[in-house]
Fold each of these.
Amino acid sequence: PTAHIELDRRAVIAPVNRRTFGSFVEHLGRCVYDGLYEPGHPSANEDGFRMDVVELVRELGSSTVRYPGGNFVSGFRWEDSVGPREQRPVRRDLAWHSLEPNQVGLDEFAKWLKLTGSELMLAVNIATRGILPALDLLEYANHPSGTALSDARVANGSVEPHNVRMWCLGNEMDGPWQTGFMTAEDYGKIAARTAAAMKMADKSLELVVCGSSGSGMPTFGDWERTVLEHCYEHVDYISCHAYYQELDGDLGSFLASALDMDFFIDTVVATADHVGYKKRSDKKINISFDEWNIWYVKEHMEAEAADQSAKEWRYAPRLLEDKYSVADAVVVGNLLMTLLKRSDRVTSASLAQLVNVIAPIMTEPGGPAWRQTTFYPFSITSRLASGEVIRPVIQTPTYQTTRHGEAALVDAVATVDEDRAAVFLVNRDLTETAQITIDVRSLGSTRILEAVTLADADVYAKNTLEQQDRVTPFANASAVLADGVLRVELPPVSWTAIALH
Ligand code: AHR
């Protein structure tokens, strides 16, 4: 196919929000234990954190990190995970049928975030606990000193408050799999009361109320409306969660997953604004897309049902350790482009998750840490996107998909800063190279700083322990910029980033 793209630096959507590049660490499988925390590992620092993982997280460029769950949070007592380690209890985690040793908790995790340079986004358990434990956690985390819980934090070694800005009011409360899941009515009420109480302590907190766990949930739409009717005044964000996978060998539909994400965002924005209008409120509720990724959930469920050891209570079992292909990375790159395009209303997002569990970074105990294919589009976009997101006009052929209807073969987004710009592109064509021309005259760019592509003759190629660098991005030599026109060839099933000066 051939496609033509017009970029106009005046067609600004919104500033690039650094929080778009957030990620997620849950006490799940080997994300924390035997992932980012492994005291016996050769690269571990004095706190037991693997510095090879820290280096990769920095390279990934993840901004916020949502913690400690996920489904885990709905059975979590935060008090278990602070104070002297030898006194911390072992608990059963019902969400993931695992044992939780509580050797990493808020204070340790906050220390880890200092190493990675990321912002903490904390989830409270309002599924199986009430308002008071949430307020206690807030006092422990954020109050400077001179109260029972802030002094306990100081005594535990965290002298400075953690000053957490973003708080999630529970997790996926619409999901029947959630410990203590609720109807929209029940959740809306408890979320409103918890949020109001937390804001009595600190008006400047940014609170995220749970939206739907996916656009396919039977309650999608109604859930958002009902919940926001209860808490509109008290919260700042509503969450969206979405996971995609190739189903029934239908790669064409899978490559167009961004269309579902876009539909999801549109619908939630419309619903939130509808409630806002009904309330005659000037306030806008933004979206925290705080779980998104590729997840081969169907395959995991089948494997788990057949695995006897999955019925035992185990510490840090190998759960949800998806190995990602080139096609998966192209979809991840495209989903991130979609989040950027919706930066006007999606002002926070979290790739779920960060280490070992549906993650861009994998580790082996005592062994190496490496980058999955999906690592690259995320890290490169996080590094290159800056300034403002601009809306491209894309003339492209389309194709028919079973799941998402008509889809563009080529998708793109661009960002523009004072002295540089970046264009991100995907070619969804399964067999043909796309010939692209991009009118960049309005950007005033004269030079290509970098042009990289992720593609492979085998779209299912993956990076594994044995072949950690099987798939890496390569310089795209076809990119040329002359007379204000950028030309580039995009291989079939590929993701590309071009930085301009
Ligand atoms: O990210 C894995 C799980 O997916 C999370 O725990 C949950 O919130 C979602 O269902």
Amino acid sequence: MSVGIIGLGRYMPERVVTNFDLEKQMDTTDEWIRTRTGIEERRFADDDVNTSDMAYEAAKQAIEDADIEAHQIGLILVATVTPDMPFPTVATMIQEKLGAKNAAAMDISAACAGFMYGVITAKQFVETGVYPYVLVVGVEKLSKITNFEDRNTAVLFGDGAGAAIIGQVSEGRGILSFELGADGSGGKHLFQDGPYLEMNGREVYKFAVRQMGESAENVIDKAGLTKDEVDFLVPHQANIRIMEASRQRLGLPEEKMSKTINQFGNTSAASIPISLKEDILAGRVKDDDVVVLVGFGGGLTWGAICLKW
Ligand code: ACO
């Protein structure tokens, strides 16, 4: 059985915060942020909009896009490190709101690689015939764990949600191969042990450049394809320089890589589904395209998928 993404949705909060807005708040410049990260602006959710609200909006859109009913969903997986509260989970909160009364529900914590972990977990349940449809959401309200006194991290992150319905697709399409991995020894480079996220940017950068390229190459190989058969790359939107390094390693031209970091910053687990949805809406990803999704995050964790759209 072939399994793939059959519907996508995304939600971005309305409030736009530009680099110039941040210049007024801390010792930074638009020039520094743009050249070091590729970010021009990001979205922050208002105080009365929580993670589950954004997840619900994206999920609703994905369900409509897949042309299914909420009660047909067998499992809801929400990848987030910024849930409304430790429990109940965001997954159960949206289960109730969506009316997905037949769905089991849980959150997944794999930081920025969370959406990849979610999609691959979902694939197993669909492939084995256990559930016909699994809803996977990547969602973060990173603004609530961002220390606006720390310019090293405060300029990087944004809020948002992306969602996908995983289900059966026609033979030969959908997910062709995947890779998931973790290296707990790097946990000290990116963590939250108090109110705010903390990061050793340089260490994360080095890891990400190496891992994104390697994982992308591995899934292309596992799918029995070569780099020149890849049509499009959707990397986790963490830093344009990290993204560029993986694009160049695959030998793809600039227009064949997803880029939403300029508009949305790093939205962690939400960045890949948000970007993929934008690319589909803009016609950059078309039917039968071979697409590589690749992400990395705190843990350290990583994941990549090679799929035929
Ligand atoms: N404005 C102005 N100057 C700044 C800022 C800022 N916002 N932030 C740091 N600087 C300064 C530093 O203090 C440093 O000054 P110094 O040399 O006087 O000490 C200088 O700029 C250079 O700092 P570096 O850390 O060397 O800058 P670098 O080019 O490495 O870029 C960055 C930093 C953007 C954080 C980069 O290391 C990076 O992208 N790392 C990966 C981060 C990442 O991907 N995180 C998320 C991963 S997973 C997840 O999404 C949760």
